[in-house]
Amino acid sequence: MTEPLVVLKDVQKHFGDLHVLKDINLEIGKGEVVVVIGPSGSGKSTLCRAINRLETIESGTITIDGKTLPEEGKALAQLRADVGMVFQSFNLFAHKTILDNVTLGPIKVRKVKKADAEKRAMELLERVGVAHQAQKFPAQLSGGQQQRVAIARSLAMDPKVMLFDEPTSALDPEMINEVLDVMVNLAKEGMTMIVVTHEMGFARKAANRVVFMADGQIVEENTPEEFFTNPQSDRAKDFLGKILTH
Ligand SMILES: Nc1ncnc2c1ncn2[C@@H]1O[C@H](COP(=O)(O)OP(=O)(O)OP(=O)(O)O)[C@@H](O)[C@H]1O
Ligand SMILES: [Mg+2]
């Protein structure tokens, strides 16, 4: 593996009595694309949220590029800006234009000049194929277009790693591929990515590794090819049996 960029060591997390992350150890190398897959409630979103420090952890450590995630304050805001996150729901600001949605973070958090932020935003919107929509408002775009704007908005912060939590699961089927294509290109360009998705096509095309979670644990890790064709654990076999028959 290349130099590790995201390192989780012995991470534990409870929600009340529920042990939602059980002793998670995971290293993600620079430029690596890891797909996280597993049944509903297995802790995939919590894992992503912990890496972005949207959730606290009780013990263990999470480091991004050698730096431990701080508890709070300015250092946290800075480090969080290094971690881009794209959710199932696009969370764009409804009352702001597409362009403003993409420039807001760089201007407010990165202190980039407006003109520079706009130039870069237009390049990114071009890259995700929605530059011609820059002056529109989110509600005027399709779900797939909005999700591509959300990706551009994350990229505008120059993150070191991008987290995707089921980015296509709220989309109509015909819009899924346009979002996955953007993600595949991002992976090809060398972005470090952690992607929660059940899209096996994406995993096969873009992932270096599949991490299978069940009941808060990492049960199995393998290449996409090996994982999908030759799962080792009963949990993974059972899970794949279910998603493959749908
Ligand atoms: N804020 C919270 N308070 C209490 N319990 C929570 C909270 N967030 C998540 N949980 C519980 O923690 C467990 C793991 O949730 P999580 O959202 O990480 O699962 P997931 O693998 O992302 O599931 P899905 O595939 O449905 O998105 C679930 O049992 C969930 O109900
Ligand atoms: Mg989830």
Automatic annotation (TrEMBL):
Task: Please state where this protein is localized.
Answer: Cell membrane
EC number of the protein: 7.4.2.1
For molecular function, the Gene Ontology terms on record are: ATP binding; ATP hydrolysis activity; ATPase-coupled polar amino acid-transporter activity
Note whether ATP-binding occurs among the keywords: yes
Q: Which segments of the protein form a coiled coil according to its record?
A: none
Query: What cellular-component terms does GO give this entry?
Result: plasma membrane
Q: Which UniProt keywords apply?
A: Amino-acid transport, ATP-binding, Cell membrane, Membrane, Nucleotide-binding, Transport
What is this enzyme's catalytic activity, as reactions? a polar amino acid(out) + ATP + H2O = a polar amino acid(in) + ADP + phosphate + H(+)
Q: Which InterPro entries match?
A: AAA+_ATPase, ABC_ATPase_HisP-typ, ABC_transporter-like_ATP-bd, ABC_transporter-like_CS, MetN_ABC_transporter-like, P-loop_NTPase
Record PROSITE patterns: ABC_TRANSPORTER_1, ABC_TRANSPORTER_2
Specify the enzyme's EC class, one word: translocase
Q: Where is the ABC transporter domain?
A: 6-240
**SMART domains under this entry?**
AAA
- Which Pfam families does the UniProt entry name for this protein? ABC_tran
Q: How does it sit in the membrane?
A: Peripheral membrane protein
Q: Which family does it belong to?
A: Belongs to the ABC transporter superfamily.
Protein name according to UniProt: ABC-type polar-amino-acid transporter
Taxon lineage: Bacteria, Bacillati, Actinomycetota, Actinomycetes, Micrococcales
Q: Which gene encodes it?
A: artP
